[in-house]
Design a protein that fits this description.
By secondary structure, the chain is α/β, with parallel strands linked by helices. A five-stranded mixed beta sheet has the order 2-1-3-4-5. The chain is globular and about 40 Å long.
């Protein structure tokens, strides 16, 4: 799915603007972390935010692998764990996960298992991406749940954050 595919809302607009607004929040989390202040933890700056069906922000996550020594501490996983804790169950039906970088296979699998309704991501990840780049886990017809996907939302801004980190 291209950057603009699926972003127009047939009911008269709004989805694209909402996704861009939510992606700006994920970019903020990527750069500053869940708390105010710039992290200096060595983690790749990827930010994720889970929104409830009503648009309420439920949880955020930023990569914390270096900070915690946990190989599963990707932004998406942390945001999913925190959202599930907040709603009191593991099923996140109708929720939207917004993340600045295309999820890897672990995170894509977790999104499916959590029953996330919609995934919005920024930059494509050609080396490990599992929502269209290298694999397409979330659209695999053999799985019992397939979220909607909106790819490339604020892709240039998301990629710029990553390029700045790797310089």
């Amino acid at each position: 799915m291209g950057a603009d595919e699926g972003l127009a809302d047939p009911a008269g607009g709004g989805r694209r603007q909402r996704h861009e607004l939510w992606m700006r929040r994920a970019l903020e989390v990527a750069v500053t972390g869940p708390e105010a202040g710039t992290p200096d933890d060595g983690d790749i700056p990827v930010g994720a935010v889970v929104y409830g069906p009503d648009g309420t922000e439920l949880a955020v996550g930023r990569n914390e692998r270096e900070l915690t020594g946990d190989p599963t501490a990707h932004a998406e996983i942390l945001a999913l764990r925190r959202a599930a804790a907040r709603v009191g169950e593991w099923r996140l039906d109708g929720c939207t996960l917004v993340v600045t970088l295309e999820p890897c296979t672990m995170c894509a699998g977790a999104l499916v298992l959590a029953r996330i309704g919609t995934v919005v991501f920024g930059a494509w990840e050609p080396k490990t991406g599992a929502i269209g780049s290298l694999w397409d886990v979330v659209r695999d017809r053999r799985l019992n749940h397939r979220p909607e996907v909106y790819a490339g939302v604020l892709a240039a801004e998301s990629a710029a954050v990553l390029r700045a980190f790797f310089r």
